[in-house]
Each structure stands twice: as C-alpha cells, then as structure tokens.
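Researcher: I'm comparing several assemblies side by side, and this is the next one on my list. It has 688 residues spread over two chains. Same procedure as the others: predict the full complex and return the structure.
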Amino acid sequence: MASLNLVEAVNYALGAEMESNPLVVLLGEEVSESGGLHGAAEGLLDRFGGERVLEVPFAEGGLLGAAAGMAMYGLRPVAELPFAECLFPGLEQLSVEIARLRFRSGGEYTCPLVVRVPYGAGIGGGLDQFESPEAYLTHSPGLVVVAPSNAYDAVGLLRSALRGDDPVAFLEPRRLYRHESMEIPETDYEVPIGEAKVLRECDEGVSLITYGGMVPVSLDAAELAAEAGHEVEVVELRTLLPFDIGTVLASVVKTGRALVVTESRKHGGFGAELVATLAERALLHLEAPVERVAGLDAPIPYAREELYVPDSSRVLAAIERLVSF
Amino acid sequence: MGEDRTLTSDGPIDEGGERADLDAPEASGEAANEVDDDHSVDTAPVELGDLEPLIRLFETLAVAERVDNECQRLQTSGVLSFYVPGGAQNAVSAAVGCTLEEGDWAYPSYRDLAMYLARGGAPRALFDQLLANGRDPAAGRQLPGRFSLPGGRYVSVSGALGTQIPQAVGTGIAMQLRGDHSVTLVSFGAAAVAQSGFHQGMELAARFRPPVIMICSVAARAGLQGSLEGRAGGYGVASRTVDGGDPVAMLEACGEARQTVRDSGAMLLIAELPDPALSAAKNNGGLAARRAVETQLEELVAGGPRAPLLSERLAAILSTATDTVREASASAAESAPPAASRALEDIYGEPSWMQQEQSEWLA
C-alpha cells in the first residue's frame, strides 16, 4: 500500500494499466522526457519506451485524432492534454468524431480511449489555461465524463475508463494534484463509472451535490455548518455523464434541501442540469428553492482569482440560506 | 465502351503470335462452365489472367457509374435529398480501393463510393445506406453516401473536412507499434487542405513515418494557392502527382505508393482530376474513367484471341452492373425505415439511464 497524492495516483494507475495491458499507450505533448506538464507521466518513458509513450506535436486536434485512429485499430490510447483550454482545438475530434463514431457507424467502429484533462482555477492559470470545461463535454452523447477529487478514486476511475468500451473525458482538478495523499490499496480495484459516493451523511439538513475541485471546499463548508448546528450530506458525483441520478435523488428526497456546488460558471453549465433534474423529479420533496454556488459568469482572471472560485464561506452562506428558508 | 458497344477482335492470334486453338474449351470460354453432378451449370466468368486487376477496376467503375446515375435520378425525382456523386473521382477511388489488401485500413471521403465497392461493399447495402432504410447497419443516421462497411476496415465517413487525416495517421502509428505490415489509406479533397486536420496529419506523419498513403484528389479549379508538393515537402513528406483521370495510372501509382509507405513512411499522392469543362467528365466523370480502363484493356488484347473473351466479359459486367444497381435501388426503396428505437442505440456500449428513459418518448 502506497501513500499517493492525486497526480501520483494518475501516474501509478497509468503505469499499472500499461504494465498489465500492452495495448495501452500514452500520447501527449512533452509526455516523454519531462513526464508531461504536471508530471503525471513521469518515469513512464523509462518503463515502457518511446513506442508506448509517444510525444506528439503541439496540436490537440492531431493528438485526439491520432488517438481516435489508434483506438479504432484496437489500442487503448490515453491522450494527455496539458490543460483544459487545449480541449478547444481538439473539440471537433472529441465531440464530433470520437463521441459519435459508434452511433454513426451503427456500432461497427468504436473509440475506447481516455482523454486526460487537467482543469480548474486556483493555481494562477489566468484567462485561458484552466477552465472548467465540463459543460462542453456533458453535452456530447457518446462521451463519458468523470471527475475524481482524490487519489483513490482517480486510480479506480482510470482503471474503469481504460477497461470500458466508451471514450472517457477524465477531468483532473489541477488544484488538487498535490492537495493530500492517501493510501492506495495494491488490489486491482475499480471505481465503477456512473456511481456517486456519499462522503458525509445526514438524515435531515441539506444535500450538497458536487464534484472535482469543489469537493474539499464543500467538505470544509459542511464541517463549518455542522459546527453551527446544520447537518449537510455531501454527495460527490465522480461521474458527470452519465451522473448517478439515483443517489442524488435519494439524498434530496431525504433532506428536502439541495445545494449544487460547481466551479464552472453558474449559467448554462452542468450545475444547471443538476438543478433542472431536481426541479423535474424532486420538486414536491423540496422544503426550499434549490441553491447554486458556482463560478462567476466571467472569464477566469489572473489577478484576484479567488473571486472567481467558490470558497467555503460562499458555500456556507448558501447552506444557511437553505436551512433558514 | 458504352453499353451498346461490343469489343471486337481482329483474329484468333494471341499476343505471342501463336494461333490459339479455338476448339479448346479455354479459348471458347466454356472451360469455366462446369456441369455439376446435379446437371446444373456453374456460369463462372472466364478468367483472363493478367487482365483481372484491370477487369476488377472496370467492374468497380461500371457499378459506381451506375450508382451515380441512379442516385442523380433519385435526387431529381425527390427521393434522395442529398447526394454527392463520385463522378470524376471514381477513377481515383476505384483504383485506391482495388489496391487495398485484406488487413489495410481505409479512411474515405464522401466521394469514395467506388472505394466502398472495391473494398467489398455490396450495391444492395450501399442503397440501403443511401436511402436510409431499416436494413442500413447505421440505421440511416448518416447523410447518403457516408458509408460504413462492417468488417471492412472502411471507416464510417465523416462530414467534417479533414478530420480523418490525423485519425488515419493514428491507425498507421498503431500498425507500426503492433508490427502490422498492412497500410492505412486516407482520401480527401482539396477543400480539406486548408483544414487543421491536414496539417496535423502531415506533422504527425512526418514525425512517426507511419505506413499511410494520403490521397488528395484535386479538382482542376480547386483554387489552391501554391503547390501541394510544396506543402508536403515543407513537412518532409514525400509526394507524387498522378493523373487522377487515368484509373490505370492511379492503380499503378497506388500500388507503388503502398510499397513506398511500407518502406519509408507516409506519402502524399496528389490525384489531379480532369477539368470537367474540357473532358468527357463534363456529364459523367465515372463514364470517362470506365472508358479509360476499357481502352487500356482493348489495347492489351488487340488482335489476340482474348479479345472476344474480353468483349463478352465486359459486356456481361455492364449488364450485370445495370441489373444489380437497379435491383438494389428498388429493393432499398421498398424497405421500411429504421425503427424508432434505433435513435437511442449505439451511443454507449451499454445504454445509460438517459437513453433508457428517453426510449419511452419514442414508443
């Protein structure tokens, strides 16, 4: 059992899967010698050689297109993007080609690959480096979208992604790469795609639904709320598409109050989808209007980044509004 | 040769100057017709040895030409809402398709119906796709002409320009990694050259040298600035320009390119299509391409004993092609549309709760 932080866990899971499955290859920009922009590929070139750790030109459409061609052929490519905004040059390949291939070919061709996307503000990435791009991805049927918040789930979800039949966008909250370490079992465990996890339970109070980089913020806020006498059940989605509607609804029906916490912009985002789902299916169980805590409807600034990213005080304020409604 | 013409022979002298024994069953073409024990007659066509590759090319072009004609008829009559004819590109597409071997992969463009046929696609399945009926494996999801060939390593055609180029290079790299000696072929038109996919594909091809033949069909008035050879050279990728109106030249060039990319990595094959305003391609590029092959075949057997055999064979091909396409079109038109449930299938390996739930909307 090793103690690993999130980026070490990604590196560990990649190495383990490449070890056990010769069809797994890694492609990315600067992934070979330097181990990638964030070190997630560190040491993999030495272990597996240049035939399985491929350094590609700085062109994300080419990176994802090549990964698609490899996946169609039968390999299990992992394409590493350096940061979230690099998704946009590759979005045609990911959303129009990769996500739709199974559908457009009647199931004859599939594209089982993993696209790793370091994302999220809070590290000084500025205006065009670390967006929260999940809304672009969750609007692409055919894609699976996951967002772990810790090392254990990162390992298990990456295994599931690499062993499944569908293309997976693997969102890695950049801010949490070295946030904390945890023990990773040596067993070959998987975290199933599509299963949320209840991180903190309660019978009455507020259901807080969140994922990725907002998980520690939400847990902090829940702790502060508990100190103030308010119970909070924290549901971490882990998979965004398809999200675990059963766990979400069960929690909200139980508590009667719902708070959705996302880092991405408030309007038109994935959080809005969660709120809409609750309005459709849990309205008669609600004791208060659903609350949202989200990023500002603005590009992410370099200076005063903290204004954009929700913090525990904003989340706590929303909890207090809910319980006092 | 039009369908109303018949190949003629100057006499029963073969190319070697020897008089053929016309009484021999091989020469009369009867050898291939064997009477089975049950007294049925197997009417397999006469094999013409070294001519077979060109005959296959001829046959592919003949069927493609008829598909084009039938689709234009269907479009005019309002049955088919959208169709991009193979036309002059049939020569390139058929030649490429006839060059591919079993393990090869093809990433076609939307004008590559001839490649689809050469790769083993049946006219009936082709019309099922064109008319988007329930027999189409892709359930009519794609625009007419964007075929997918089950089991044929003929990847479903995308409507996005140039996206197939880096994909093909990825497949070529995968072949390298797995020690597969097959090749990957990607076809695109001049319009894709300005797209990022072209440049990404070239950059990747230059870096990894995979066994990929990139075929760019360039219409005479495509309006490209500068040369494609120059673009390829800038990336350090070999290139060659071929007369795309000459399917025989294309067949030879593709065969050579196949060897080249296996030996030294990707290359760009530039197929210059004939100017439709100056050639027989004006009305039907596919007809011009087929006639070019026919002329070549005629020259190869001129004055020899195989001439009448060839004549019969080609006439039979044309007749069969006409019947086959007509039957395929009629059959496809009669077939029911795709079931509503197909709208939510083939999205994931296993349907998510969203698809399961929304299937009720379709009931």
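Model: For your comparison table: The longest helix of chain B spans residues 306-334.
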